[in-house]
Every structure is written in structure tokens, then in C-alpha cells.
Write a structure and sequence with these properties.
alpha/beta
Length: about 400
């Protein structure tokens, strides 16, 4: 009976369901999710939907339990976000936010170095800069306890030393629940808290320096934010969002290169939303990738010094972000979709690295006997910049291959 109900659900028209925000994400489709799902409905004929470049995993959130979703992205944090939306559920072992925060606070008190960086009475730029520099100097500090990655690598950057202590402590507490179905929810709540306590714009390309009284005032606001409060807020929201029992539909997720993922997929619908511009997502979100992996990565070195952004030395470089490689990247994408006998819905912007016309030419060479349709909508692309460049007017296009 359950199997029959599932088939009926998967063959029905899909729609956009409410879902909580987990991350500030460049190029997010959350504002035009109705448009995206309408496009998917034109190609969808039942079976699994593969979200090939899942990013913030908003499609998993929007589709909920309507159909089987395989969420994929080369970045591991995306897998955690997707599993929060479509696989996590509560059990009687799930702790309250208060219990998690109290446990983290105990760790924090035990692990704190004999160092205090107090922003309370600092109003002079020089004193503020000196305080920040002292914290960044902890990257050369030897720590006697294991879970110190953020205190060492990121104090005085996007977060203060105090905030980094909280990040490390909550991350350590989360690991005790790694085999539990609500584990992704704990990490997603922490990812949310990191974004809203960060003195940056929501991504982690480079932290800001206090060079003017205005920037000093703004950064000081974020330095005083309680990471524990933001974690608690999101954790409580997600506790009410995730189901009380294991979902009937078994969703899957992976952190694979798109070509490898397509090799293992067959007979469903692929939704592909590849990067549009020359900046790599691994540059913008390396900090949360490190949070999830917690692998103490080597940091990128330039001219003998650690790069200001403190990027992972081995961060992923997408061929969709390298102009000379973009045509071949699309060629490989269409080839993989064709070999998997799947339908395709491709999102791309008219301001991308390659023209829509050129993409259609490549698509036609791979799908000569298939129907190819395009639809578009005006959209403000979220850049996560500041002031004049916060949003950018684009025309979002869907190329539908059925």
C-alpha cells in the first residue's frame, strides 16, 4: 500500500513547499523556486530527481517528501544541508538546544586559553585593529586540546576568538551524535549561526578590516553577537520542521564531481544549476566546508604568507568557472545526461560564462532527437556583495530537454 502511494506521489505535479533557510548563499534560487519547479514539471515523468549542483540544497527543501531526490554537490557542506531537509528526523535521543549549548559551554570553559579579547570599551580604530591582530596571531599558537581548528585558524577573521570557541565546542558536541538521524540538523544550525555572527557578508571570501569609524562600528556589532543564540534559534526551528519518524521516501545525497554522479544515475530527471561566473564557490564557502570535514587543512600560501582569506589549499576548482573549460564542461554534462537516459532541466543566466545560444548549440548536438525548450524569467541574482552590488539584474533561463 505504501509503495502504491509513493508511485502516485511521484507522478503528480510537483510544487514548492515551505522550508527553513539554512545559509546565505550566492546565486540562490529560493526566490524563483516556483519558476524552477514549474520547469521541472515540464520534464518530470516520475522517478528520482537528481539535483546535480545542489549548493544550498534549496530544491530538496522545496520538494520535501513529494518525490525521491538525490542531492549532489562536490562540496560536503551541501550534503549536510540536503540531509537536513530530506533525511533528518527526530528520535528520543535528540537533545534540546539548551542541552547542546550547556554541553558546549562546559567544553568552552575547559578549553579557553588564558586569553581574553574584550571588545566592550574599544572605540579607537588603532586599538580595535590591534585586538584583531592579536587574535589572528593564534594561528601560530600550540593548542593542548583536539577540537581547536576554528580558534586557531579563524580567530579575529570572520569571527572573534570567543565565537570561534563556540564553533569548535558545538562542532565537538555534534560529533557525539554523528550516527543519529538528526546529526545534519545540528551542523546546519551551526552553519546558520556562523553566517549570522560573521562580520562578513554571508560568504567567506575575505573578512573585512576596520579602516573607518563606520566599518569599525559595523564589525563591532557582529563581534558582540552570540553564536549560541543564533544556533539555538535555528535548532529550535528545525526541531519543529523535521519529521518525528523516518521519512517514507528514502532520499540520497553525495559529494561527487558532476561527471561521476551522472555515471551512477539512470532514468530520472536531472536538475542542473552549474556555476555561472569566474569565482569558485569553494572560495566563498571554504570555511563551512572545513567545519563539516574538520580536517585541519593546509591553508593556501602566497609569497610565503598565508592568504588573507585563509582558503583551503586543496579547494575545488570548477570547470564551469574557467572560461576556456566551460564549453567542454557543458559537453560532458549533456553527454552524461544522455547516457543516463534522463530528462534535463538546466538553469543558467544570460550573464554567465557562455551564451545561452552556445549552450543550446552544444545541447542540440547531444540531443538531436529530443525536444528542447527554453523559458526565462527576470531575476535579481544575489551576489552577497555590499551596497551597490548586493543584487544583480539577470535573466534566468531554463533549458528543458525531454
Amino acid at each position: 500500500m505504501l509503495h502504491a502511494k509513493r508511485i502516485i506521489t511521484e507522478q503528480s505535479a510537483l510544487y514548492n513547499t515551505p522550508y527553513p533557510s539554512l545559509i546565505k548563499y550566492m546565486g540562490s534560487k529560493s526566490k524563483i523556486m516556483d519558476f524552477v519547479i514549474d520547469g521541472i514539471n515540464k520534464a518530470y515523468q516520475g522517478g528520482t530527481i537528481l539535483d546535480l549542483f545542489a549548493g544550498s540544497a534549496s530544491l530538496s527543501g522545496a520538494l520535501g517528501q513529494q518525490c525521491t531526490v538525490h542531492s549532489n554537490d562536490i562540496q560536503n557542506y551541501s550534503r549536510i544541508l540536503a540531509e537536513t531537509y530530506n533525511s533528518a528526523y527526530s528520535t528520543n535521543k535528540m537533545p534540546s538546544a539548551l542541552e547542546l549549548v550547556h554541553s558546549a559551554q562546559e567544553l568552552l570553559c575547559n578549553n579557553r586559553l588564558a586569553l581574553y579579547f574584550d571588545y566592550k570599551d574599544i572605540s579607537d580604530i588603532k586599538d580595535f585593529v590591534l585586538l584583531e591582530e592579536k587574535q589572528r596571531g593564534l594561528i601560530h599558537q600550540d593548542f593542548s586540546y583536539e577540537w581547536h581548528l576554528f580558534a586557531k585558524n579563524y580567530s579575529g577573521t570572520w569571527w572573534s576568538y570567543e565565537q570561534c570557541l563556540w564553533i569548535d565546542a558545538i562542532r565537538q558536541i555534534a560529533e557525539a551524535y554523528k550516527k543519529q538521524p538528526f546529526y545534519p540538523m545540528i551542523l546546519s544550525s551551526l552553519i546558520f549561526a556562523m553566517a549570522y555572527a560573521s562580520q562578513g557578508t554571508g560568504h567567506y571570501a575575505q573578512y573585512r578590516d576596520a579602516k573607518t569609524k563606520s566599518s569599525l562600528k559595523d564589525i563591532s556589532i557582529y563581534r558582540k553577537r552570540s553564536l549560541a543564540d543564533y544556533f539555538t534559534r535555528k535548532y529550535n526551528e528545525l526541531s519543529n520542521f523535521i519529521p518525528k519518524n523516518k521519512p517514507l521516501i528514502k532520499h540520497t545525497s553525495s559529494a561527487l564531481d558532476y561527471k561521476d554522479c551522472l555515471t551512477n544515475f539512470e532514468g530520472g530527471t536531472v536538475y542542473a544549476d552549474p556555476p555561472y561566473c569566474f569565482v569558485h564557490y569553494s572560495r566563498f564557502y571554504h570555511a563551512i566546508e572545513t567545519l563539516v570535514l574538520y580536517d585541519f587543512p593546509d591553508l593556501q600560501i602566497q609569497r610565503g604568507s598565508i592568504v588573507k582569506g585563509r582558503y583551503r589549499d586543496n579547494r575545488h576548482q570548477s570547470p564551469f568557472c574557467i572560461k576556456s573549460q566551460v564549453p567542454m564542461a557543458f559537453d560532458n554534462l549533456f553527454s552524461g545526461v544522455n547516457q543516463s537516459s534522463s530528462n534535463l532541466v538546466l538553469s543558467y543566466s544570460n550573464t554567465g560564462m557562455i551564451s545561452i545560444t552556445d549552450i543550446l548549440d552544444i545541447a542540440t548536438s547531444h540531443f538531436p532527437d529530443r525536444k528542447i525548450e527554453t523559458v526565462s524569467i527576470d531575476h535579481k541574482h544575489m551576489t552577497l556583495g555590499r551596497k551597490q552590488d548586493r543584487h544583480r539584474d539577470v535573466k534566468e533561463c531554463l533549458i528543458i530537454v525531454k
